[in-house]
Specification:
By secondary structure, the protein is mainly α. It has 9 helices and no strands.
Length: 144
């Protein structure tokens, strides 16, 4: 069962009754929520640096946003689950492109590549994503 199916079931959504477009909307909404949670995690990870540099909230948010995919790649590398070569292979992207992103030289990777990187990150850090999804599902159930 695909992750989207399990998550949708947890939210009480029967994706078999949704159109292709509606399924894409559900998937994108979940991707946005996961990214929001990951950004918050990375922001908290670097909070001491932000305080030291006396960044205001707008500067913090800009830095977190600009470095989001960099942090995903660095987390993959730190976990030692994947090398740059492995990340490139999984995402079907030239290793040089992954290096450019990791170094911060390319701060605007495509949505397709970002999605693949997050998918790989999910495979490498399943417990983190399980906790994020519990929070997302709980938030949706409270709103319902």
């Amino acid at each position: 069962m695909a992750a989207i199916e399990r998550i949708s079931q947890g939210l009480g959504i029967n994706i078999t009754k949704l159109s292709r477009e509606e399924n894409l909307i559900v998937e994108m909404e979940l991707l946005v929520r996961i990214c929001e949670e990951l950004r918050e995690l990375y922001k908290n990870k670097h909070i001491d640096y932000f305080r030291l540099m006396k960044f205001d909230m707008e500067q913090v948010n800009t830095m977190v946003e600009e470095n989001f995919i960099v942090d995903v790649i660095k987390d993959l590398l730190i976990s030692q689950e994947y090398s740059l070569e492995g990340i490139a292979h999984y995402t079907q992207t030239p290793e040089e492109v992954i290096c450019d992103i990791a170094a911060g030289w390319n701060q605007s990777p495509s949505l397709q590549l970002s999605r693949k990187l997050i998918s790989l990150h999910r495979l490498a850090r399943p417990n983190l994503y399980r906790e994020i999804m519990k929070k997302v599902v709980a938030d949706y159930l409270v709103q319902a």
